[in-house]
Amino acid sequence: MEYDPVTEQELLWEMRRVRGQMKRKRLLWGLLIWAALAAAAGWFIFDRYFILAVVRGPSMEDTVQSNSVVLCRRDDGFDPQNGDVILISKGDHMSLRRVAAHGGDQLMLSAQGNLWINGLQYPADAADMSAAGDMLYRPVTVPEGEYFVLGDSPELAVDSRSGSYGTVKREQVIGRLTAVVWPPYQMADAFNQHVIQPVLKLFH
Amino acid sequence: MIKFLRRLLLFLLILAGLAYLLFPFVSDQRLQYRNAALIREYRHLCRNLTEAEKENLLLMARIYNGSLPNPIIRDMFPDYSGDVRGQNVLQVSGSGLIGVLEIPSLRAQLPIYPADAPDAMASGVILVPGASAPTGTGGHVVLAGESGHQAAGFPGEIGLQDGFLFKYLGSLQQGDLITLNVLNETWLYKVTGTETVSASRLNSTDWSLTGDRLTLISNPGNQRLLVRAERMTEQEAARAMADAEKVRNLPGWATVMLLGSPVLLIGLVVMGITEMVKKKRYQLPADAERS
Fold first, then answer.
1. Which of A13, A66, A159 to mutate to test binding with chain B, by most B CBs within 10 Å of its CB?
2. Is A9 a member of any domain?
3. Domain with A143 in it: what CATH number?
4. Does this model's pTM top 0.80?
């Protein structure tokens, strides 16, 4: 049997063909492996540390606009402090509010709408504070293990000033706000606050 | 050289295609960002008003409403050119806004301007002259907005629009919630129906000032889409406010994908760098000569 000798050109083509084939296989396997790793990492982070939630409603309008997507750290036994924005689950209803007072604090909402916590005035507009609640104008003490929470837009918010919402028990706190990740301009703010600024601080 | 130019051309074509597809979304995000800042500033200015000042503004608006004759609603697209006297009674000093319109089911939050504000409908809605100013005590408030505003410059010339505005107004269903926020007072309306009329027949539909009503108008094509709404009772409003307040988790699969996406991105970068290194190191002699 006779064979035509292989020319250099044909050899080169065949080598390129095999290389291309190996490259495609390598890329496909690489993609599958990295996708599996990404899914595993995503599941691990979701199961242990963070959740993503969509916020609707105007109560936190000044901080988190309606229809924003927020990244919240799951409850890891943390102790909510005054000023923390916490994720609350009451029955089948979830909401995001800011802690204004905790167990043992004494509160009073004056007739003018000023909120006093342990003798110090809460920094919010009086007209807004009296707008949306039925809280009685007498001193109340927040029960131990509970939190008095307010929306950041008090004139629009349904929060602990309202009898139907009331104070929040510790077991109803299921997380705390870490960052707003959508819409993009809020994500850019969060990226600047949590990534750029800490890096810049290292150089100061 | 020719191969490089071909790749460059392909890259530019793909980039141009992506830019064309993403332009409406990106410009809408830009518009929302600008509107969010304006609305925040408006709410901040309203908070600084005393109760007496607020009452005074609302009283002036009620006097304006009381002085309205039988309404004649002129077509307000593309610009309104009629009498706008008295429209700015509710304007807070330092802000160009009269109030804020929110439609939760459309994820729309739009500033309300007087009809003579320059380029008002490019970024918000106007209070239509001849109808009531919003005071929360009855009347027929009419707001008009464009269903997509043509972008400025070259993007506009090739048919691209700047922001979604009232583009999806037609998808509102009966019972959907609409809120008006004026001087930090919030009034809730529910959609009762929609109708479409031609621009020339706009004035012959129902514009009576009785009841406590709201109508939204947009301009899909040459028609005028009217969305009618009625003020909710207090019980309905309290229930609607409670229902509107919702935080819900994203579905688990979406959260896993989003939280894992940085790992995938890192993987793609690693794969890209590895391929580049391999290509350089294991180049065939003929290819090396050619390059």
1. A66
2. no
3. 2.10.109.10
4. no
